[in-house]
Design goal:
The structure holds two protein chains of two kinds. By secondary structure, chain A is mainly beta. Chain A is built from one helix and nine strands, in the order βββββββββα. In chain A, strands 7-6-5-8-9 form a five-stranded antiparallel β-sheet. In chain A, strands 1, 2, 3 and 4 form a four-stranded antiparallel β-sheet that branches. Chain A is globular and about 40 Å long. Chain B is an alpha/beta fold. Chain B has two domains: about 140 residues, Peroxisomal Thiolase, Chain A, domain 1 (3-Layer(aba) Sandwich), CATH 3.40.47; about 220 residues, Peroxisomal Thiolase, Chain A, domain 1 (3-Layer(aba) Sandwich). Chain B is about 35% helix and about 20% strand. Chain B has twelve helices and ten strands. The two termini of chain B are about 30 Å apart. Classes of the chains: A mainly beta, B alpha/beta. At the A-B interface, strand 5, strand 6, strand 7 and strand 9 of A face helix 4 of B.
Chain lengths: ~130, ~375
C-alpha cells in the first residue's frame, strides 16, 4: 500500500524526485519518463529534478471512512503547492484537520510506517512547519 | 474541411427509455438494457429493425456487452459497439449515435447505457506511475479537497454545499426511475460522520445499476417512419474534450467544464442565460456549485447563493438536476450520461409531470469522467 520510496530522497533534507522538461521547462511530480505532458517532447528531453519538500497548503480533508478495509482511518490528506511549482497530494502527519488552515506553510517529513521483509518502509508525509519545530 | 455537428444534417432525439436506477440486484444486465431499449422504441413508435446502428455505453460489464443483450430484439446484423469513457460512457455513446446520423451513415441510431456494479479496474493503475497517496485518495476525497478549497475561497459554509443534496433529492422524490425517491432535510444530509472532509453520505451519489436509451434520427427517418416531430428534440451541440495542463492553482475540473461548455454554447449559438434545464455531473454536492459557475449560470463564488435563492429549482431561472441528478437519481456509470439526455428530452417535450420546468425550450447535458474527460450536449425543442 505504501508509496514507492523512489518518489523521494531522504538526505540531507527530504526532497521529492520530480521531473523537468528541457524543451518547455515544465516541472512535474510524480516522476515519469514517457514524454512531456505540457509540450509533447519525447523522453530524451525529460530529466529528473529534485523538488524542495516545502510549500503551502491549498486544501485538506480528513478521511473517516474508506471503502478499502486495508486502509486505516482517520487520516488527513493535503494539497500542497510546492515552492518549486507543482501542486501535489500527500498524507499529512496530522491525523485530523485540527489546527490546519489553508495557506499554512508545510514541510516534507519522512515517516517510518512499518517494515517489509525486515527492511523499514518509509513514507513521505507533510506537516505544518511549526509542528516540526 | 472540418465540420461541427451543427454544420452537418440535423439530428433529433426521437425516443427515450430507462430502466430504474437501483441498488445492485440479481437482475441480469440484459433485462436492464432491453427494458430501456424497448421503452425507447415504444416511445418513438418505431420497430427495432429501423435502427441502423447501436452504441452501448458501459464501463463495468466487461468486453463485448452489446450483442448478448441486443440479439433478443431480433438479430438484424446492424453495427454495434461498446463505448467506454468512464462516467461519460453513456454521453459518448449519445455522441457516436449523433455523429452516425449527422454524417449520413445511418438514419436511425441508438445510444444505450447499461451497467451493474463491479470492482473498478482503472487503466491508470497500470501506467507504473505512482504518487504519494496511492489508493488512499478516491473520488470522494478528490471532491472533499475541492469543497474545502471552495469554502475557504468564497466563505461558503458546509450547510450551503449540503443544500444541493436537499434540492436534488426533492426532485428525485418525484422521479419513478430514481434510485433515491425520498426527500431529505438539511439535517439528514449533514447527519452521520463525514466520509471525507465535509462530505457526508448523502452528499455522494449512489452507484447502482440501471439502463438508459436514446434513439437518434434524421429528418428523413422522421418522415419515412412517421415519427411525431412535435416530440423530437434537436441536438444542436455535441462536444467532447479531455483535460489539458492547467496552472497549479487552477481547479482542473472546473476548467475542463468551462472550456467544454463554452464550445457547446458556440456550436449551439446560445448563451448560458438561454438554458432552461441543465443535467450536470453532480456526483458530489460540491460539483454542482463548481459547474454552475464554470457554465456561467451565475458568477464565480455565487453558486451557493444561486441554490439558496431557488434559481436552480424546478420553476427557477434554470432547473438544475431536475431528475435528481447523480446525487439522487443515481449514478450507475454507463447509463448516466444517456439518462441525462432522456431527462432533458422529456423536459423539452413538456412530459416531465410534477418535475416539469415550465416552458423548457433549451437544455444542456454535462458529464465528466475520470481521466479526465468532459462531454456536453445541447438539446432544443424542435417544433
Amino acid at each position: 500500500m505504501t508509496a514507492p520510496s523512489n518518489l523521494f530522497s531522504v538526505s540531507p533534507n527530504p526532497t521529492l524526485n520530480g521531473g523537468h522538461c528541457r524543451a518547455c521547462r515544465y516541472v512535474f511530480f510524480p516522476p515519469q519518463s514517457y514524454g512531456c505532458e505540457s509540450c509533447g517532447a519525447p523522453p530524451e528531453q525529460l530529466e529528473s529534478k529534485s523538488l524542495k519538500g516545502e510549500g503551502a497548503l491549498s486544501s485538506f480533508a480528513t478521511i473517516n471512512l474508506h471503502q478499502d478495509r486495508g486502509i486505516e482511518t482517520p487520516f488527513t490528506v493535503g494539497v500542497i503547492v510546492l515552492d518549486d511549482g507543482p501542486a501535489i497530494r500527500a498524507v499529512l502527519t496530522h491525523e485530523t484537520d485540527e489546527g490546519l488552515k489553508i495557506g499554512d506553510r508545510m514541510r516534507a517529513f519522512v515517516v517510518a510506517v512499518g517494515s517489509e521483509g525486515g527492511a523499514p518502509v518509509n513514507e513521505l508525509r507533510f506537516a505544518k512547519l511549526e509542528t516540526l519545530r | 474541411m472540418k465540420k461541427t455537428l451543427r454544420e452537418m444534417r440535423p439530428v433529433y432525439v426521437v425516443g427515450i427509455g430507462l430502466h430504474r436506477y437501483q441498488r445492485m440486484s440479481e437482475t441480469p444486465y440484459v433485462t436492464l438494457g432491453l427494458t430501456a431499449v424497448r421503452e425507447a422504441l415504444k416511445d418513438a413508435n418505431i420497430e427495432w429493425r429501423s435502427v441502423e446502428s447501436a452504441y452501448t455505453g458501459t464501463a463495468m460489464l466487461g468486453m463485448a456487452a452489446s450483442r448478448p443483450m441486443l440479439r433478443y430484439l431480433g438479430a438484424t446484423g446492424i453495427p454495434m459497439a461498446q463505448v467506454e469513457n468512464a462516467s461519460a460512457s453513456g454521453s459518448t455513446a449519445v455522441r457516436q449515435a449523433c455523429l452516425d446520423v449527422a454524417s449520413g451513415v445511418a438514419d436511425v441510431s441508438i445510444a444505450i447505457g447499461v451497467d451493474k456494479p463491479a470492482p473498478m479496474a482503472l487503466a491508470s493503475a497500470k501506467t507504473n506511475i505512482h504518487d504519494l497517496v496511492g489508493r488512499r485518495v478516491v473520488p470522494f476525497t478528490h471532491f472533499a479537497l475541492l469543497a474545502n478549497e471552495y469554502m475557504n475561497r468564497y466563505g461558503a459554509t458546509a450547510e450551503q454545499v449540503a443544500a444541493v443534496a436537499v434540492k436534488n433529492n426533492r426532485n428525485s422524490a418525484n422521479n419513478p426511475y430514481a434510485q433515491r425517491q425520498k426527500p431529505v432535510t438539511l439535517e439528514e444530509v449533514l447527519a452521520g460522520p463525514p466520509i471525507s472532509g465535509s462530505l457526508t453520505r448523502l452528499q455522494c451519489c449512489p452507484i447502482g445499476e440501471g439502463a438508459a436509451a436514446a434513439i437518434i434520427a434524421s429528418d428523413d427517418a422522421i418522415e419515412t417512419l412517421r415519427i411525431d416531430r412535435s416530440r423530437a428534440a434537436r441536438v444542436t451541440a455535441s462536444i467532447s474534450r479531455s483535460e489539458r495542463v492547467y496552472r497549479g492553482e487552477q481547479n482542473f475540473d472546473a476548467e475542463l467544464t468551462r472550456e467544454t461548455v463554452a464550445q457547446a454554447y458556440e456550436q449551439a449559438q446560445i448563451s448560458p442565460q438561454d438554458l432552461d434545464v441543465v443535467a450536470l455531473h453532480d456526483a458530489f454536492t460540491i460539483e454542482e456549485l463548481l459547474y454552475v459557475e464554470a457554465m456561467g449560470l451565475c458568477g464565480e463564488g455565487e453558486g451557493a447563493r444561486m441554490i439558496a435563492k431557488g434559481d436552480a429549482d424546478i420553476g427557477g431561472n434554470c432547473a438544475i438536476s431536475a431528475s435528481g441528478g447523480l446525487l439522487a437519481m443515481g449514478h450507475p456509470i454507463g447509463p448516466t450520461g444517456a439518462g441525462q439526455v432522456v431527462e432533458i428530452t422529456r423536459q423539452l417535450r413538456g412530459e416531465a409531470g410534477v418535475r416539469q420546468q415550465p416552458n423548457a425550450r433549451i437544455g444542456l447535458a454535462h458529464m465528466v469522467g475520470v481521466g479526465a474527460v468532459c462531454v456536453v450536449h445541447v438539446l432544443q425543442k424542435a417544433a
